[in-house]
């Protein structure tokens, strides 16, 4: 096939259902669809890909249908471009190349926009925290007004600030006034395992999945807590002020990306600010 000779890896399928299955499995960079398919039509398949997977991946319709109604229908279904048979292979290669380059450029622009948004959110949260520290705000007041920034900065679905006796000082999202005893039990088990570790290093978190030296007891306690909270990843920092542990910061997420280097760096700085807040208000 001309596209394979041009250096592209392609997979051929014969039905709309197989297109959907392979799309989910392979996550292709581009889809070529024929408007005429054995079990339906390419217009419907194209629309299903767009609505079912919410994808912006380019879809190129390749078909013998060249009437205006078919062309309009293809674009209405979500096709990115349209080429008619008989195929001029040099033209097809150029169309594919252009679509891929355009898609990659759009993805890069989106990534840059997300990075700028994240940087702005993190700067806003830091400024709010520092301002609150100057005002000697208590933890609850310090954290309560900035909840919209937590998801951006930490990709977290759960943030808990714990006292050293494993009681909850602050939690996001807000929980009931009296957390379940089972949660207290899991938190107590975790903090007990952390206390029994050889040493507590300021700014060094305990993580699930584990990514460094960490006792089996700590990892098991993190796993039990993650299971209870229906989370995939959990990170816990000690809140250390003048050599003493004043509490703990827990971040939990449904995605393991919470353990990325950038998120860990922001979490470490966040924990440092919380430790200062606890130290100056206790």
Structure description:
With 282 residues, this protein is of the alpha+beta class. The protein is 52% helix and 17% strand. The chain is built from ten helices and ten strands. A five-stranded antiparallel beta sheet has the order 7-6-10-9-8, sandwiched between helices. Strands 1-4-5 form a three-stranded parallel beta sheet, sandwiched between helices. The model has no long low-confidence stretch (mean pLDDT 85).
Structural category: alpha+beta
Level-1 CATH class name of the largest domain? Alpha Beta
Determine the mean pLDDT: 85
Biggest pleated sheet: 5 strands, antiparallel
Order of helices and strands: HHEEEHEHEHHHEEHEHEEH
CATH topology of the largest domain: Beta-Lactamase
Regarding quaternary structure, how should these chains be classified?
A: single chain
Range of helix content: 40-55%
**N-to-C span:** 72 Å
Strand order within the widest beta sheet: 7-6-10-9-8
Radius of gyration: 26 Å
Superfamily (CATH H level) name of the largest domain: GAF domain
- How many helices? The count is 10
TL;DR?
The chain has 10 helices and 10 strands. The chain has 282 residues and is an alpha+beta fold. It comes from Leptolyngbya iicbica LK.
Question: What keywords describe this structure?
Answer:
five-stranded antiparallel sheet, Beta-Lactamase, WalR-like, Rossmann fold, DNA-binding, CheY-like_superfamily, single chain, 10 strands, three-stranded parallel sheet, 282 residues
